[in-house]
Amino acid sequence: MKKRFKYILFSALMSTLLVSCYDLDVPVTTQITPDTYPKDSAQFVASAGVVYAALRGNYAMDYYFVTELSSDEAILPARGGNWYDNKGYRNFHYHEWTPDYGWAVSCWDWLSRIIGYDNQTMYILQSNMPEGTTKNRMLSELRMVRALAYFYMMDLYGNVPIVTTYGDFEQKPKTDRKEVFNFIESEIKACLPNLTSTVNAVTYGYPTKYMAYALLAKMYLNAEYYTGTKRYDDCIAACDNVITSGKYTLATTSNYLQMFYPNNGPSTPEFIFAIPFDPSYTALGGTNGMMYRARYDVPRSEKAKFGLPFTPSAPESTLPEFYANFDDPNDVRNKQWLTGLQYMNDGVTPIMLTVKKKAYDQYYAGSDPDANMTYQVNLTPNIVLRQDSILFDCGNDEIAWNMGYRNIKFYPDASSTSRNQNNDMPVFRYSDILLMKAEAILRGGNATNGQTALSLVNDVRSKRTTSTPWTAVTLDDLYKERAREFAYETWRRNDMIRFGKFEGKWGFKKDASVYRRIFPIPTAAMIKNPKLTQNPGY
Fold this sequence. Notes:
Elements: H1 11-16, H2 41-57, H3 59-69, H4 88-94, H5 102-128, H6 133-157, H7 177-191, H8 209-221, H9 223-227, H10 232-243, E1 271-275, H11 293-297, H12 320-323, E2 337-338, E3 340-341, E4 352-356, H13 357-360, E5 372-376, E6 378-379, H14 398-401, E7 406-407, E8 425-429, H15 430-442, H16 453-461, H17 475-485, H18 492-498, H19 523-528
Antiparallel strand pairs: 1-8, 2-7, 3-6, 4-5
């Protein structure tokens, strides 16, 4: 195996896992008790595995769609009714989601599930594990996973309830976002002394000290938005703790793309914290646990090019507004995109399709609609709702299916027969540490260790492009650089809000409502917990 950390539960644990509820306000319960399980070191590890399986659960699907399709980075229109899915993808593009809709609901359930399992697991391990360094480290790692889940919940929903005690069934009202922020910060600081500073294959996939500092840096960078108080010097200090450790290096120009390949893992030099994916992993009940990027992003006509054992669906693409950021011809990050005329991997052999003229263009009005025509696949930049603008529909022909440039950063996995890929997904990368520090300096923080915003950005760019280093950098420049660096890594919505861009216009979206920066509390959650109140605007 390429990685040790598989997040698979022992069959004994799986057979006894009887979950009653995943609401944040009604903690998860099972038949497992400290009297029956776990009793030895292998069982301690297995018990903790449920939390990591829960974290993996909906990260690459529901959370990905929430953060990317609500931004200018990705769009998933219908094609002849395909992928309309009861307005799901349309509503996220138009910013018309509701308290009962799609991923706004499933992400609440997913994050509540992580927190519930975490609380229960920590209670069991606290009761059963012998005192010592191992226990302190495992419990701190679990607290860090819970802190990450609360960070996502705070970011997505604003004010949320805080539940930290297993067995506490009292319904909780929402806690003010500033207090949630302070809670997460205090949790991270409490965990830091017990987290490992070792970075290797054994610690891969687990929270380390540097994962904790990275999460603190992300919180402090966004603190003015979350709490009304600027924390840019704190962001810089957190970044410095990662930088001065010497544990991480930037991927070079030649291996930037390989960071996201199916065989990525512990040897990836930039991954501070990543979520491992593997088709052999067992999905936790109630989650999908899948990583499906090729299914959504690879054109149907390019199955052979990537050696895929399945025909991809190809509904998702980017928007011209986002792709415009990739304007440096010498930048290796351009190669994460499929654009224009398509060729096999030799770069010479054109990808050709033979179809009926009416199948190529459903509006063909000639006298021979059933005659065959052969054409080279050509991905065009614009999304045009040719068939039905109300139904978000481009049409069901080759012209429609080839609309939009496609992202293949998480490179298609030819070894998977289930569409589920081996590519691990990074949560925090070293380049993010450098660019967060640069941004914090630009926003008024004090430069440290001889590094300036310009030098930090040029450090990253020196490993991504052969173009001349920049001589100056602005916040707008940095915003565009983050688009290039973190495309399809779930940070675009977060960046857009912080830079004041989320209310802008892109694609077909014109809604400028500020309240859309946070998602609604699901109706089902409010029914189960009457102490919850709906977020403004919903």
